[in-house]
Each structure stands twice: as structure tokens, then as C-alpha cells.
Amino acid sequence: MHRIISTIKQDHILGLARAGKRIDGRDMEQYREISVEKGVIRTANGSARVRIGKTQVLVGVKLQHSEPFPDTPSSGVLMVNAELLPMASPTFEPGPPDENAIELARVVDRGIRESESIDLEKLGIKPGEDVWGVFIDIHVLDHDGNLIDASALGAIAALLDVKPPQDEAWTLPEFPVVRKPVAVTLAKIDEKLLVDPCLDEENVMEARLTMTTTEDGSLCAIQKGGRGCFTRDELERAYRIARDKGQELRKLLG
Amino acid sequence: MEEQKKLIVDGRRLDGRAPDELRPIRIEAGVLKRADGSAYIEMGSNKVLAAVYGPREMHPRHEQEPDTAVLRCRYNMAPFSVDERKRPGPDRRSVEISKVTREALEPVLFLEMYPRSVIDVFIEVLEADAGTRTAGINAASVALANAGIPMRDLVSAVAVGKVDDVIVLDLTKEEDQNGQTDMPVAIIPKKKLITLLQMDGSFTEDEFKQALDLAFKGCERIYELQRAALREKYALKEG
Fold it and tell me: Which of B92, B200, B208 sits opposite A110 (nearest CB)?
């Protein structure tokens, strides 16, 4: 995917970054305004709409009977899928998911899976035959940058919204979410690290880094993206920012 | 889950390695005749081939970029490279690996020197034992050099991780599957810049730093082996 941005805007953003400023007036470590609404889709078991600035993502969770993996016969299965809807950006096209959609889904998946956010071991029904499948579908409605953080936040919000299904196979008092992983993405522009890049910033950034942390501040997933590089020192700074911003974002989950 | 067996006993890993030890590595440059550049790597029992074509005309034309070459990477696993036959063709994992591999290699290339063209990198995993993406990057970077494509430096890559609460270098499949954390890293050794970083599992801040140190150490050793493979390829042979 080629990024198109006018040279004048590019130079403007670079010049601002050099001076420690941003195109929309934010601090380097400041998110845009975030809203998290839960329970927005009645037909989903859990759902959430997340807005970060003008970026808008809708996440639905469905629980369905599934077949377990052979190596974990009595554990539930987790699936994350992301769709970059053509309505969300002039650069998104209909069709099977491209590498950006796949990467988005897999980064969100790793955050939830590796933090052991859902106690999947409790989601068995009949060992070896029947378990609960947790299907997280990320619908990107409007793309103004930082889809990863919006999607990851939407996913955990939707999981926290899951109401037990009306099904006799369901025996738990509530859906077992035990940890809240939060992804924080930083863009590198002119040697500076900016939290929550908007689309214009994404179009000029050299690289991005997403770090997903849990309540205790430990890391559960990392993903570097883009054609640039990071220094060792930048990684350590990024971690501290991701941990602190992660705590902030987690408060929005209620 | 049932009781897991120990992966580290008396400070040694199941294959006898110390935590900070790489598996045996063998790299050979220029192993394919038709490709413009190629390399073969064995890292432990990983066997990976990389081939480079280009810079050449970009097809389809609409994917040409007027001011730069495009790097295209395809990471692919042979169906017989894993225990359970892998269905041929790209799956979600290999699409993601192809993307991060491209992004790991792009920083060392002078793509702006070849507008409208494409450099194709094909990575074929013939036998897999964890760390195939990093093995693929190591081979691809030697293959790019073997193709005579101008580069700022090579890219060296290795995975680090955590097993039995110990930070270890270059995980085997057994360690990856039963361990706690896997973190593939690629660097530009001369400038100490990180071009690929992924992680899944759990790390505290200290563990993360320790793992990065170990990754740099491993990459530097691999860098020597990559350069040795290229020197070997182009050395004057006697007789």
C-alpha cells in the first residue's frame, strides 16, 4: 500500500516533530479523545464501539460451539478477524483481507491470547468434541490512524461486555475475562516518538511500534511495523510510555 | 493442562546448549543458478533457501512506484517442512511474516536507486524447527548481497525468549511451544538498529532488556557468519 501525502504537509509534520509538536496540537505522549461504548449490538454476545479521534472501530464477539484443538481438548478456542471496510478509507478495497488486515487481527489476537486474558480452560463443554469458540470480529468503520490501538481496545471492551449465551451448555456465572491487555502504538517521526499517530502522521512516519501490556505493567505482545528502524534506547522509552499510557486507557474499560 | 516437562535442567537446555548459545549455523551464498542472488542457511535443523530476482521491471505495472523500487517478499513453507503437512499456499501467518520480513530488509536497501522496478525475495522454508522467519531474513540478506544489490549493511536476525523463567537465545520448536515467550529480532549490526521486533508471551521490563541484550549478541555472531559466507563465495580459489 503506497502512502500518498502532499510534500508540503509532510514537511510541515516533520518540522513540527523536530520542534516537539504535532499537527493537531497534541503533546507527543497524548492520545486523541477516546470513547468506548459497550453493548451496541444486540445480536452479538458482546460488542463495543471505540472512537479515537476520528478513527472508529466496531468490535463484536460471538460465542459459538466449536471443535477444540487436538492439543487442548477441553479449552475454548479464540479467533480474531479484522475487516478494513471499503467505507473506512478510499484506499481500502473489498475482497479477502490484505496483509494490513491480517497483521491488525494477529496483533490484537496476540495481545489477548498471550496475556491469557480469557480463561479459555473454563470454556470446555465436552472434552475433545465440543468447546466454546470466542469469535472476535473487528469492523473498521472510519480510518484516521492508529487502527491497532482502537481495535485492541474495542476487542477487550467487547469481551468485558459478553453476556452469557442462552444455551444449556453454558454453565459459568459469567464470561471469564481475567486480564485486560491494552495496546499502545507509537510512531517514529524524525527521531521522535509520538503516541497514537493520526492518519497524516502515519503517512509520514518512518516506523511504528505497538506494545501491549497488562495490569502489572508486563509486556505480552510487541509488533514493529513500517520500513524504518528503532534504537535500543527508543525501545526502552517506548516500553515505559506504553506501560503508563496503557494504565490510562485501561481506566476507560470500566 | 498436564504437568510440563522441564526445558532447562542444571542450566542446560534439552539439546545441551547454554541459555545464551546459538544452534549450529551454516550459511552458503550463491546456491541457485537462475536466481540473481541466493543463499542457503541451516540454523539447527531449520533449512531455509532464499532467492533474489531484480531489480527488474515491476509487473503488474500498476504496482510500479514512480520514484522508488518496491521490495516484495514471499515467505513460504514447504508442505513437508513441518510434522503435520502444511496446506500449500499462503496462510495468515505467512502473509504476516512476509510483511515483517520485507520491513526488516527495506531499511538496508537503496530502493530509490531503481524507480519503477521491483526486487523480489523468495524465502522457502524446507524444514522448520522454530525461528524460520529469522533464518529466512539471514538468508535473504546474504542473497541480496549475492545479487549485487547495493546495501547499507546486512540484516541479522535471531529469536530470543523465555523458557522455565530463563532468557534464552535461538529457541527450538519444543522451547517455543512449551516456553513462555518468543521474541524474534532483526538488526542492522553496524548501526545497532532494530528492523524487526515481534513478541508474544510475557516479559517484565528487566527480562525485556535482558532479552534484547541477548538478541544483539546472537545477531552479532550471525553477522560474522553471514560475512564469512560471502567472503567464502568470492574468495580467490587456488588452482
Answer: B200
